[in-house]
Amino acid sequence: MKRLSIGRRVVGGFAIAYLLLLLSGAQMYRSLQGYDETARWVTHSYKVLDALHRSMLELYDLESRQRAYIITGDTVYLEDNEQALRSIRAALTEIADLTADNPAQRAHIEAHSQLVEERMSLLDKMSRSFAMRALPQPAKGSRLAFRCLAGRPCSSSRPSLSKTSAPCCCSASPRPRAMRAKRKPSVPWWCCWG
Fold first, then answer.
1. Quick one: which of 5, 155, 179, 183 could link to 192 by a disulfide (CB 3.0–4.6 Å)?
2. What CA–CA distance (Å, rounded) separates 87 from 93?
3. How much of the chain, in percent, has pLDDT values that exceed 70?
4. pLDDT tier at 1 (50, 70, 90 boundaries)?
5. Cα gap 154→148, rounded to integer Å
6. What is the dihedral of CA 5, 8, 9, 10, to 10 degrees?
7. How far is CA 52 from CA 15, 60, 107, 120, in A?
8. d(Cα 76, Cα 65) in Å, to the nearest integer?
9. CB-based contacts of 69: which residues, under 8 Å, 6+ apart?
10. How large is the angle between the packed helices 81-98 and 6-72, nearest 10 degrees?
């Protein structure tokens, strides 16, 4: 058997090293492509979550303004409603555009959009029905009316811990003990306790 010369051995060693270098480079290129694809999907997911979060916050803000309008009767709280509705619809459109490539998510987003639209129409109906009711409106800055609606006693801003019945803003007479025992869980404890 003929032995390889030193020159051929060196060339063979460099060829094997070069081949291994090419293979590891190809593997690294493939890994970087996968990393870029994963990073794109993560960014895409964060965009969808951000749009969902924005629509949720705008809807909460819309509900809060409607509650403030119902409590105070001041129409200043309704001034930005149209802008909020446009913002919510824009966020829902952005979500629909971002999830257009995923049919399963698209179905969820369409159901979500429908529920949000129903909620917005319900809020609009409630505001219109309140406006048509011609209730006596409290004076601007009337803290007593707000405290009465919140169920707080008139005498102080903090609840009293005594067991005696204190008058509530809503009535001229103290609350009877029977009413305190049968209070609803949604009613604050200080409105039923004295």
1. 183
2. 10
3. 68
4. low
5. 8
6. 120
7. 56, 12, 15, 16
8. 9
9. 75, 77, 78, 127, 130
10. 150
For residue 126 the two structure tokens come to: 């409630």
Amino acid at 141: G
How many residues comprise the chain? 194
* First and final C-alpha spacing in the chain: 110
Give the C-alpha separation, 27 to 12, whole Å: 23
Residue 118 has pLDDT above 60, yes or no: yes
Q: Which long-range contacts (CB under 8 A, 24 or more apart) does 37-41 make?
A: none
Question: Between 6-72 and 103-132, two packed helices, what is the crossing angle to 10 degrees?
Answer: 20
Burial status of residue 96 (CB atoms within 10 A of its CB: 0-12, 13-18, 19 or more): middle
The first and second tokens of residue 66, run together, are: 């409607």
Amino acid at 82: E
Backbone angles phi, psi at 104, to 5 degrees: -65, -45
pLDDT tens digits, residue range 121-165?
888 888 888 877 754 554 454 444 444 444 444 444 444 444 444
Q: Which carries the bigger pLDDT value, residue 116 or residue 143?
A: 116
What one-letter code names the amino acid at 147? R
Q: What is the DSSP letter of 155?
A: S
Q: What is the H or E stretch that residue 88 is in?
A: helix 81-98
